[in-house]
From TrEMBL:
This is Uncharacterized protein. It comes from the Eukaryota. GO terms for molecular function: oxidoreductase activity. The keyword Oxidoreductase applies. The keyword Cell membrane does not apply. InterPro entries: NAD(P)-bd_dom_sf, SDR_fam. It comes from Mythimna separata.
């Protein structure tokens, strides 16, 4: 299955979190090749600089920038949002960054580390950028999920508990939250020109996603991934397709795998749950009165 699109993105601004390596880097490279101004964001500046230089060298597009962000820090996410809001426009936000097998601990923000890195950080960044995305419409939000979301749970009383989740259910719960958030975004963004969709990269064999897993388990997992996983280049094309394909203009609230629409999690249809997720997430990331554009009726 090819996901190539020849769409030109000149004048468009695309943000890719987790863009310094793996499938995020490949997506950023594809989008730069299509003429977009691409901003990659991740934690380590040295990796970001190298990735930016590689993208420029590979595509000839000089309009590639990087910004540091630590998704385990809400203040860092707020700093990134402030910097991005100084751009003339933001047309595509790709929430690609994520991690597995992080320590079972709380962050300085008193949130479960895996939940914050995989979900709360993306929620906050998206929320703070929505007015910019709306003013830049037509715009797209593209969120990364995982098949482990089918073993995840959303329990608002316990989603930041320690000792409750193993690495798989922690990942699953955080990615289920992303999926339900995407569904709620779709409902709230009707008639704004902003769409929100998810992609499930299935299994990707050549990323550093397994780096937090202990020795022998990492080796076994990597062997399995190498047998059945997709190449990061192929997943990068799939993400770029969702960000750029003209035929997806106006398409929203869908889950994609291998560039095909895929049957979504049954809980996306639970309007009460997705609405409550939105409200509880705003509380968890401590949206301030000044940040709360909803009370200003921007949508």
């Amino acid at each position: 299955m090819t996901c190539d699109t020849k769409a030109k993105l000149n004048g468009k601004v695309v943000v890719v979190t987790g863009g310094s390596s793996g499938m995020g880097f490949e997506a950023a490279k594809n989008l730069a090749n299509q003429g977009a101004r691409v901003i990659i964001a991740s934690k380590t500046e040295t990796k970001l600089k190298a990735a930016r230089d590689q993208i420029i060298a590979a595509t000839g597009n000089q309009n590639v920038a990087y910004k540091t962000v630590d998704l385990a820090s809400l203040s860092s996410v707020r700093n990134l949002a402030n910097e991005l809001n100084m751009e003339d426009r933001v047309n595509v936000l790709i929430n690609n960054a994520g991690a597995i097998a992080l320590p079972d601990t709380l962050t300085a923000d008193d949130l479960n580390l895996t939940m914050q890195v995989n979900y709360f950080g993306a929620f906050l960044l998206t929320y703070l950028l929505l007015p910019k995305l709306i003013s830049s419409a037509p715009s797209r939000i593209v969120n990364g999920v995982a098949a482990t979301m089918y073993v995840g749970e959303i329990n608002f009383d316990h989603w930041n508990d320690l000792g409750r989740y193993n690495p798989i259910t922690a990942l699953g719960s955080s990615k289920l939250a992303v999926d339900l958030f995407t569904a709620e975004l779709d409902r709230r963004l009707k008639n704004t020109g902003v769409t929100s969709n998810c992609y499930d990269p299935y299994l990707v064999k050549d990323t550093n996603l397994l780096s937090n897993i202990p020795g022998v388990f990492q080796n076994v997992s990597q062997f399995f991934l190498n047998m059945v996983g997709q190449r990061k280049e192929d997943v990068g094309k799939q993400i770029a397709y969702l960000a750029a394909a003209p035929e997806l203009e106006g398409v929203s609230g869908k889950l994609y795998k291998f560039c095909y629409e895929f049957k979504n999690h049954w809980l996306v249809h639970d309007r009460w749950l997705t609405k409550r997720l939105w409200e509880e997430s705003k509380k968890a990331v401590k949206i301030t009165e000044k940040e709360d554009w909803e009370v200003k009726n921007l949508i």
